[in-house]
Structures are given as C-alpha cells and as structure tokens.
Amino acid sequence: MPTALTILDSSESTCCSPITSGVMSDDEATTLAIKFKAMSDPTRLKLLSLVAATQGGEACVCDLNEPLDLSQPTVSHHLKILVEAGLLTRSKRGRWAYFALVPGALPSLADTLQA
Prior knowledge:
Blueprint: H1 26-39, H2 42-53, E1 58-60, H3 65-68, H4 72-84, E2 88-93, E3 96-101, H5 105-112
Antiparallel strand pairs: 1-3, 2-3
Helix pairs in contact: 2-4
C-alpha cells in the first residue's frame, strides 16, 4: 500500500526570522532551539554531512552504520532526532528507511544567524 508523502515547499522559510530582527516569540525560540540542539551532537552533524554527500542526496540507513562505526540502533536514534527536528526526511522502502535533507532547512537556519 503506497504511503502519502508531504511535499515540502523550499521557497518558504522553514523556521524563524533572523535573531537580530526583533524579539522572537516563544514558539519561534522553541523551534529554533530544537533544530540547533539536534545539530549540537558531532554524530548528528556527521550524519547530516553523510546524507548530503550521497549521490542523489538520499541515504539508506543500512549505509550509515559503517562510516560512523556505530550500531544500527544508535544511528537510528540520531536519525530520529534529526527527522523530528525537521532537518531530515524519512521514507520507507521495503524494510529499509531512506533519509534526505529537508530542502531549505540548513540555509534557513543559517539565515537566522545573519546580522
């Protein structure tokens, strides 16, 4: 049975306005903190770079254990945090999960730090 996937519009800001543009709302601050907290771990940063560097911009979870020298449950835990933070998407094909960067998520975060 096919799974419906949400189409993300990369033309819209996926998070927040620049920090220097005024006082953030509580919701904006929480959303931004979740994204930066997810990226504050070296393993998750490496996962983001591994996924971004794969041909086609999508990586199977089965290909991410060896480069990190971590067990599959540990890698899956880190990937789950990145998905929940809105930095990666997850799609399941058969028994494998594939991950890709959310279009515009990283540039949007970078834009929040612009003065």
